[in-house]
Amino acid sequence: MKKKILIIGLAVLIAVCGVSTFFHIKNKVESDNNKKMYESVAEEVSATEESTTPTPTKAPVNPYTDNTTVSGGSGNGGASGGSSESYTTNMNPSANPDMVGWIKINDTVINYPVMQTKKIPDYYLNHDFYKNESVYGCPYVQANCDVDAPSDNVIIYAHHMNDGSMFAGLENYRSKDYWSSHKTISFDTLNKKANYDILAVFAVPVDESNKNTFKFYEFVNAYDSEHYSSFISKCKALSFYETGVSAKQGDKLLTLATCEYTNNNGRLVVVAKRTTR
């Protein structure tokens, strides 16, 4: 009887180990394939930019400076170097017309195309760049944000993956030491290149029923300067540390959000202000 129980127990153990190994290998293969796919997309975009010499075009109206002409200095994060010329990013969205930009943080794995689908807002939560179903998804812009105008705040979401991909790396921003060597985010649209300086990093729960939770995702365009200042003040008050960066109405913001697990249904949020490039 004992021998029979031992054999059954051993069989169960082997089965459990087999299933565990299967899923481990499956997850590893999916992770590797996802990494290779986005590396391929990144190389394609990089090759396009390197092989195409940007053609300057006069830009008497610059949407990045509230419809004023850039003439020296940086203004509110417009063109720098005293030039009134505008350059496109040379990104080719033909592989997927839902692509609205590219996000990158130097010396991190964050180097991805950014999508937007206004009719199906969370489509890229579970679809990759090529519209295949994927647990990794693809970074995407909140549907009511405008990357071209742009809106006062452009909010980008992506998963916090266990293999460290997508926006999992944002978790490192809990450390001020990490922030001090990764202060800048690059977000290029199809028409403009821009850098953003991080002004606040915080974690909050998402709870629509609780009026006391900070609903960062509701701030897209400010009603007035008071509304804008209130949003910045809340971000700064919640931030893990002081960055020395602030913003006023007219400054354009970029917000990155991903899941975090110190709060129930939590989000780790990185808010940055557009600067020159």
TrEMBL record:
Pfam families: Sortase (PF04203). Residues 40-56 have a biased composition (Low complexity). InterPro entries: Sortase, Sortase_dom-sf, SrtB. The active site is at H159 (proton donor/acceptor), C259 (acyl-thioester intermediate). Keywords: Hydrolase. Residues 72-81 have a biased composition (Gly residues). GO terms for molecular function: hydrolase activity. SUPFAM superfamilies: Sortase (SSF63817). Residues 40-91 are annotated as: Disordered. This is Class B sortase.
